[in-house]
Amino acid sequence: MVLAFWMVSRLTREIITLENQITKKQMELSNHQEYAGVLGGSSALHMGNIAGLSSSLLPRASLFAQYADQASSMSAMQNLQQQKMMGRVPYLNNQMMQMQYEQSAFMQFKQAAMKALKEQEAAILNKRETELQLELTAMQNDLAKKKKQLESYESLNEQTRERLVPKFS
Fold it and tell me: Which of 31, 120, 161, 167 is the 20 to 30 A CA-CA neighbour of 80?
């Protein structure tokens, strides 16, 4: 009898702890999905579109935004210089038009590089989301088992109580 009461108490604590852990995992998964949504959104990442992220992912997102901006700018500059050296950027007599043409080419190269970087970051996030989903599924399965065990021990407690209660006729 004491064992059954002890098991009910222990399982109840374990279930509460597990439910809290599941809630935290679900929140973490939701945060990753929100960040992935931001990555899939607009072409530029800036504080305006990452400011609403959770505090756990905000540092990663802000560092990625800075890195992606710098890396895509460097890549665009290298591509533009390479295109110039290969003679693929026409020389225009009007300096203003030349500047506009080069700026347009630079922005196209930068957007392409930014897209590739965002896809890499999204792949990392997708992998983490898959891991979180697997962990969450395992925790939910464990919770279901513990709830069944708890029902079993509660039933045993009830049967034991019924047997121990004196019966007067």
Answer: 120
Q: Classify 1 as helix, strand or coil.
A: coil
Q: How many angstroms from the chain centroid is the CA of residue 70? A: 23
Averaged pLDDT score across all residues of the chain: 91
Q: How far apart are CA 71 and CA 64, in angstroms?
A: 10
Query: Average pLDDT in the 154-159 region?
Result: 89
Where are the domains positioned within the chain? 2-164
State the angle between helix axes of 2-40 and 95-164 in degrees (0 to 180), rounded to the nearest 10.
170
Task: Say what the pTM is.
Answer: 0.78
